């Protein structure tokens, strides 16, 4: 009987007075495998397993022979497998990392036989990421769980003609011991025979380098204590009941450790910075690290730093990463050849994208596709590991893949076609940036009804999201426009950003934007535009860079230009921007200069009939009075200004006037705070927040919330103070202002500490 091995093993174990766990410990055979044998789930274990059990049970010769005979009887009748059929390839002794993935595979392997369906895991990832190495490493570590064998088959998925399922089944059946003459001619019959065999065996099957789901589906067992591990560059998402295990690139520490393991600890320790630099230039890609390590091994006189210097040339880096028959470029080329024509063209031309991330609209512009076609091409590139998709709708290159794409573009497309694609992208980016920026300009708002593009800008929220998401891209296009002398366009785009820049103050690139636009205006000989954009630059130097002396000098240069051309309105704005640059200084001359500048600005705006500028000047004047210590005068001035601004007869853009009202009410709150009149301060901060809500500027709102929180602390309204501080901190964090967010967090912690100290006293 086939079950006789299990019964015999159990009786021998009982005679030896061993538990299954004790026998497992002594023999090295897993508890699960022994249990399967005794239950009859595994009827004919391999010879080495039987020998290990006999040794652990200390059997005499007669009982050892009996156990071996029982095992032999339990195995299906078959001829000897073909020599070397489906043998595991050689593993690498310096395998590094992938601890999480190996743990996950062991957990899955331990479940083989417990589940109704056979266990199948699919390891997917880009070319050279280490899928095969992981599978072979896992097979080595799972030897104890699969006593009936571990088998490997390369499906040659990247070949022009991958291995067909019928041939694959034939090879696997031979490896499992089926004589060639007994292998069914029909592919479906082969699959049935294969599944029937694996229902009785605890095996590990590795199907490496799968082309697609159709190639693999008939090779997957339906049930039994078997585990199948499939690797593919594609995610094989169409397979049912499969545990997906996508591979990411190695972490920087793991990459350096792998390179160090390849070259040896002494050599790695001699130049750790060089090793880290080489790993970084290899993009933490295991294949590239293997090649770099092999090159260093074959050149004993080189240091890692010297190899890093050679890899520093982007134009030659991918081609330099080759050693013998290993090549990064060749690995990428295999995936590239699998692409459809639209995906190939998209891949090449996306090398022109200046920003690290991009979406379907930009791809459509570059590759001259519809948006839906561009999305399909991008997903195809992701499936083959040539692009990464960090989140929905956004895509990016691995550094080495980007260089490969650049090489394909250079070799396969004429220079003129490349220039035209770049020009289309830049024109599109600057057009959309202008339309999106104008959403926030009082004189524009929503796009013209006849405007259409590949993106939706139906709300200011959509416009803001696009400008922030594509910030690096449209900035690169703006730089290019300046380089080629498109000065009017540079000024137009920067002008569209004037109001939006307040909402994204901490982007970090506004000084460059307005420096380019002021220089472009100068190149055009347009002194009025130059003065205006120098003023914008002064704002950016004050609020984005805290370069206050430089900001004042820039505003005064704009003032000089405005005076030369007799532009009284721009003179007023220059004086306002100069005033703002002075507010960071605490010396008396700066405070007096600020008050003088604001008075002159108010006169200029009155002369020019600019009510909006006049409101800014008068509000700034109230702040200057408070900074000079004339607090009560400042409060009276600002309260009178609020009444005047709220008078319908004042005129001006409602949005701009409301903003001025909010800013002035905030200054009233500051004045009352300075006077210790905390309730009045809190009331006016709340009024300021209400006025600001129509067009909220994150930093301004956060500043007012912080001031409100401080006033509420003085009023012992602790919970309301906490809420104000929390809202302020969230706004600072959302706008990227970590410094101010940290300051507000400190205020929150102070409130918490004070509450903890006073609580016991109140309780008493």
TrEMBL record:
<dbReference type="InterPro" id="IPR011990">
    <property type="entry name" value="TPR-like_helical_dom_sf"/>
</dbReference>
<dbReference type="InterPro" id="IPR010982">
    <property type="entry name" value="Lambda_DNA-bd_dom_sf"/>
</dbReference>
<dbReference type="Pfam" id="PF13176">
    <property type="entry name" value="TPR_7"/>
</dbReference>
<dbReference type="InterPro" id="IPR001387">
    <property type="entry name" value="Cro/C1-type_HTH"/>
</dbReference>
<protein>
    <submittedName>
        <fullName>XRE family transcriptional regulator</fullName>
    </submittedName>
</protein>
<dbReference type="InterPro" id="IPR019734">
    <property type="entry name" value="TPR_rpt"/>
</dbReference>
<feature type="domain" description="HTH cro/C1-type">
    <location>
        <begin position="9"/>
        <end position="64"/>
    </location>
</feature>
<feature type="repeat" description="TPR">
    <location>
        <begin position="702"/>
        <end position="735"/>
    </location>
</feature>
<dbReference type="Pfam" id="PF13560">
    <property type="entry name" value="HTH_31"/>
</dbReference>
<keyword id="KW-0802">TPR repeat</keyword>
<feature type="region of interest" description="Disordered">
    <location>
        <begin position="69"/>
        <end position="92"/>
    </location>
</feature>
<dbReference type="InterPro" id="IPR027417">
    <property type="entry name" value="P-loop_NTPase"/>
</dbReference>
């Amino acid at each position: 009987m086939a079950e006789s091995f299990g019964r015999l093993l159990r009786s021998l174990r009982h005679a030896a007075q061993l538990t299954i766990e004790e026998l497992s410990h002594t023999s090295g055979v897993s508890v699960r495998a022994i249990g399967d044998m005794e239950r009859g789930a595994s009827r004919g274990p391999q010879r080495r397993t039987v020998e290990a059990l006999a040794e652990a049970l200390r059997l005499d010769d007669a009982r050892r022979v009996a156990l071996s005979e029982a095992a032999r009887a339990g195995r299906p009748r078959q001829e000897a497998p073909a020599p070397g059929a489906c043998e595991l390839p050689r593993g690498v002794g310096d395998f590094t990392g992938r601890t999480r993935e190996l743990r996950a595979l062991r957990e899955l392997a331990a479940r083989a036989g417990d589940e109704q369906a056979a266990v199948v895991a699919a390891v997917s990832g880009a070319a050279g990421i280490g899928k095969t190495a992981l599978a072979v490493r896992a097979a080595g570590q799972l030897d104890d769980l699969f006593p009936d064998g571990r088998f490997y088959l390369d499906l040659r998925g990247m070949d022009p003609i991958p291995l067909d399922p019928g041939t694959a089944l034939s090879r696997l059946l031979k490896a499992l011991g089926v004589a060639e003459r007994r292998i069914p001619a029909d592919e479906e019959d082969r699959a049935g025979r294969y599944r029937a065999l694996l229902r009785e065996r605890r095996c590990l099957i590795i199907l490496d380098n799968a082309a697609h789901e159709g190639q693999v589906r008939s090779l997957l067992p339906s049930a039994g204590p078997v585990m199948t591990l499939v690797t593919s560059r594609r995610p094989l998402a169409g397979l049912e009941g499969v545990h997906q295990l996508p591979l990411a690139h190695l972490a920087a520490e793991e990459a350096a450790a792998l390179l160090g393991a390849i070259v040896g600890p002494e050599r790695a320790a001699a130049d750790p910075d060089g090793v880290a630099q080489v790993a970084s230039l290899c993009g933490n890609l295991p294949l590239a690290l293997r090649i770099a390590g092999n090159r260093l091994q074959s050149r004993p006189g080189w240091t890692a730093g010297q190899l890093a210097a050679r890899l520093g040339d982007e134009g030659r880096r991918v081609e330099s990463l080759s050693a013998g028959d290993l090549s990064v470029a060749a690995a990428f080329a295999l995936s590239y050849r699998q692409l459809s024509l639209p995906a190939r063209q998209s891949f090449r031309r996306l090398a022109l994208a200046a920003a690290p991330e991009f979406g379907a609209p930009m791809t459509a512009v570059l590759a001259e596709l519809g948006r839906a076609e561009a999305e399909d091409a991008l997903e195809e590139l992701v499936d083959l590991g040539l692009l990464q998709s960090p989140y929905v709708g956004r895509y990016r290159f691995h550094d080495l893949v980007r260089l490969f794409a650049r090489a394909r573009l250079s070799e396969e497309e004429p220079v003129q076609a490349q220039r035209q694609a770049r020009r289309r992208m830049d024109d599109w980016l600057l057009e959309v940036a202008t339309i999106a920026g104008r959403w926030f300009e009082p004189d524009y708002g929503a796009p013209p009804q006849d405007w259409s593009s590949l993106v939706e800008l139906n709300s200011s929220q959509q416009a803001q999201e696009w400008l922030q998401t594509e910030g690096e891209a449209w900035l690169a296009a703006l730089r290019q426009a300046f380089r080629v002398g498109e000065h009017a366009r540079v000024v137009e785009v920067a002008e569209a950003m004037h109001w939006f820049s307040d909402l994204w103050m901490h982007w970090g690139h506004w000084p460059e934007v307005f420096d380019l636009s002021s220089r472009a205006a100068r190149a055009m000989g347009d002194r009025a535009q130059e003065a205006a954009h120098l003023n914008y630059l002064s704002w950016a130097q004050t609020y984005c860079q805290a370069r206050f002396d430089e900001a004042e000098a820039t505003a005064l240069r704009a003032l000089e230009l405005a005076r030369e051309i007799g532009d009284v309105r721009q003179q007023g704005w220059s004086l306002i921007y100069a005033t703002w640059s002075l507010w960071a200084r605490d010396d008396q001359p700066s405070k007096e200069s600020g008050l003088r500048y604001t008075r002159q600005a108010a006169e200029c705006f009155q002369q020019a009939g600019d009510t909006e500028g006049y409101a800014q000047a008068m509000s700034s004047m109230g702040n200057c009075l408070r900074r000079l210590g004339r607090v009560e005068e400042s409060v009276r001035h600002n309260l009178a200004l609020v009444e005047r601004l709220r008078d319908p007869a004042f005129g001006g853009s409602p949005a701009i006037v409301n903003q001025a009202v909010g800013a002035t009410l905030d200054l009233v709150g500051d004045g009352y705070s300075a006077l210790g009149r905390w309730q009045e301060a809190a009331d006016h901060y709340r009024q300021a927040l209400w006025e600001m809500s129509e067009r909220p500027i994150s930093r301004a709102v956060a500043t007012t919330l912080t001031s409100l929180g401080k006033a509420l602390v003085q009023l012992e309204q602790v919970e309301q103070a906490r809420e104000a501080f929390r809202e302020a901190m969230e706004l600072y964090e959302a706008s990227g202002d970590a410094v101010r967010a940290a300051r507000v967090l400190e205020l929150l912690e102070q409130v918490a500490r004070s509450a903890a100290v006073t609580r016991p006293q109140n309780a008493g």
